[in-house]
Design a protein that fits this description.
The complex is a heterodimer of chains A (225) and B (308). Chain A is mainly alpha-helical. Helices cover 76% and strands 0% of the residues of chain A. In chain A, helix 2 (8-30) runs parallel beside helix 11 (171-188) and helix 10 packs antiparallel against helix 11 (171-188). Helix content of chain B is 37%, strand content 5%. Chain B has helices at residues 2-24, 58-61, 70-73, 95-115, 125-128, 147-156, 161-164, 176-190, 202-205, 229-234, 239-242, 268-273, 281-288; strands at residues 37-40, 54-57, 213-215, 225-227. In chain B, 13% of the residues are buried. Classes of the chains: A mainly alpha (225), B mainly alpha (308). At the A-B interface, helix 1, helix 7, helix 10 and helix 11 of A face helix 1, helix 4 and helix 5 of B.
Chain lengths: 225, 308
């Protein structure tokens, strides 16, 4: 049975994840319209790429933009969630063992206690972000069951992984639950707001291009203010 | 409509989880059914361990019920004599390489066996790296290498003294590795001849009590007999041959020393030694052509020696 969920079910999940996210990116680019968006995609491309990369990099840097700096607590929780959320699945030692034995891919691995701390950080951050969603009116208005459900899907692999790692109440059960919740996350990405996994880069690139060219980015080369 | 689809998908997922949980135990041999466990903690000397030590159930792997042989896990020793009694050849490997070796070989074999629908072991981390101390972990019993066992080696197996006892100039300590090399190496080559008395499983040697049943008759009549009950069970002798009254009745319950007046007129000495009956030791050995029945010491310990 372990064969099934780490075999066919895993491949189906990967297929849905990759095809779904790729479709998102293709549709995003396909639907760009310089007239409607009022973004200069075709002209001053180098300035555009520079602005896009700048926007992506600064928004990925903790406290790198003004919006991150004016909400320091939220920013902290956000990064606690996302740093662990990205590093742990990719560089966990146990995942490395599977990657190596299955596909011969050898990745650097995190020490166990670091991965453990990051996982706990992810779970604490989810609690914090959920509380924020409930008490801040500007985000409460945007929150429905679907958002909460997405958050649960996102944190489930970390919670089940933590339980499996510490073997709290049946390590094998939690490992199976961990694999299944991870697959559920992969499947959910294209169909929920988790698609920001790729769309973040698309929209930041688009806005970055806009600001890099038109909205002040090219001031230095004689553009009118 | 969308909500209904989501609800249906969620229900299917929950059912799938429950179904998988129930089905998971199929074909998996649990470690806690194993009596003899070896702690695979070799990496501990190379730094702190990341996961709980694997308590390896050797007995469950060395059952010989299919194509898995000793060579599946043990490589031939570099000198070509016998096998290495560690898992594969680990000499010169780094910590990460040894870790990868165990993971590749153990999980790979377990996965292959699951594919082949054979009894198999865990493939998930916690299946082997169990955190909770196993209930079945027993401290390894020292080998009770007593006189009868010694006699088995010198007489039955006809081993020369130097096979086990080093020459005086040898200073190598007789530690666990060396005794495993020596004993198991010899048993391994002797297996094809006599599997019953050359054990390869842990419990065959590491047993808390002597496998031999001491038949201690009247000391003035002769030394004790270290009777290997198991050996007789394995031989082509049915229980009724010796226990001819009832299976649970021991010889001495009816056959006394001949001085006590009982209904049974055959003394214990006669019951053991008469050549007229196949039920007696001597009669049966003569019938089956086993040993020299006229040599008392082939069964009896010399006077004054204790077989227990």
């Amino acid at each position: 049975m372990y064969h099934f969920i780490t075999g066919p079910l895993l491949w189906v999940s990967f297929a849905i994840f990759f095809i779904g996210t790729l479709t998102h990116v293709v549709l995003y680019v396909k639907n760009l319209d310089w007239e409607l968006d009022r973004v200069s995609y075709g002209a001053h491309t180098l300035w555009g790429i520079r602005g896009a990369l700048r926007s992506i990099c600064l928004w990925m840097t903790p406290y790198g933009t003004r919006s991150w700096r004016i909400k320091p607590l939220y920013t902290f929780m956000f990064y606690l969630f996302h740093v662990g959320g990205v590093l742990v699945p990719l560089f966990l030692s146990a995942h490395g063992v599977i990657l190596k034995s299955r596909w011969g891919i050898s990745l650097p691995t995190l020490p166990g206690f670091v991965a453990d701390l990051l996982t706990v950080g992810v779970m604490i951050a989810v609690v914090g972000l959920s509380i924020r969603r409930c008490i801040r009116p500007e985000v409460r208005a945007l929150t429905s069951g679907r958002e909460i459900g997405t958050l649960i899907i996102a944190v489930a692999p970390f919670f089940t992984g933590f339980m499996a790692y510490h073997q709290i109440g049946g390590g094998n059960f939690w490992t199976l639950a961990h694999i299944l919740s991870g697959e559920m996350l992969l499947v959910a990405v294209p169909f929920t707001k988790l698609s920001h996994m790729v769309l973040f880069f698309c929209s930041r690139a688009q806005i970055g291009m806009d600001f890099g060219i038109k909205r002040g980015g090219m001031k230095s080369v004689g553009m009118p203010c | 409509m969308r909500k209904r689809v989501e609800l249906t998908l969620a229900s299917i997922l929950i059912l799938l989880c429950i179904g998988l949980r129930l089905a998971h135990t199929d074909n998996i041999r649990r470690q806690d059914r194993a009596a003899h466990l070896i702690a695979l903690d070799g990496l501990a000397s190379m730094g702190e361990l990341e996961r709980p030590v694997v308590q390896f159930p050797h007995g469950m792997h060395a059952v010989g019920d299919d194509d898995a042989s000793c060579r599946t896990c043990h490589d031939v020793a570099p000198d070509g004599e016998g096998l290495l009694f560690v898992f594969k050849a680990q000499e010169g490997l780094s910590r990460e390489e040894i870790k990868a070796l165990y993971h590749d070989q153990c999980i790979g074999c377990h996965a292959d066996r699951e594919s082949a629908n054979k009894p198999t072991g865990p493939q998930m981390c916690s299946g082997c790296h169990e955190k909770e101390p196993l209930k079945s972990v027993k401290p390894m019993h020292p080998v009770d290498f007593n006189t009868p066992l010694h006699t088995l080696h010198t007489e039955k197996a006809a081993l020369a003294c130097q096979t086990c006892h080093d020459l005086p100039d040898s200073s190598a300590p007789f530690d666990q590795d060396r005794s495993h090399d020596l004993c198991l190496g010899c048993h391994l080559t002797g297996q094809s001849n006599d599997s019953a008395s050359a054990p390869l499983d842990c419990g065959g040697c590491h047993t808390s009590k002597s496998p031999l049943l001491v038949l201690d008759g009247d000391a003035s009549q002769g030394g004790q007999v270290a009777f290997d009950h198991e050996l007789h069970e394995m031989a082509d002798v049915s229980c009724e041959v010796c226990h001819h009254k009832e299976p649970e009745t021991a010889c001495r319950e009816c056959h006394t020393d001949g001085k006590t007046d009982t209904d049974v007129k055959i003394s214990i000495q006669a019951a053991m030694h008469t050549k007229k009956s196949e039920r007696s030791c001597v009669g049966c050995h003569e019938e089956m052509g086993i040993g020299d029945v006229d040599d008392c010491t082939s069964c009896h310990q010399p006077f004054g020696e204790d077989a227990s």
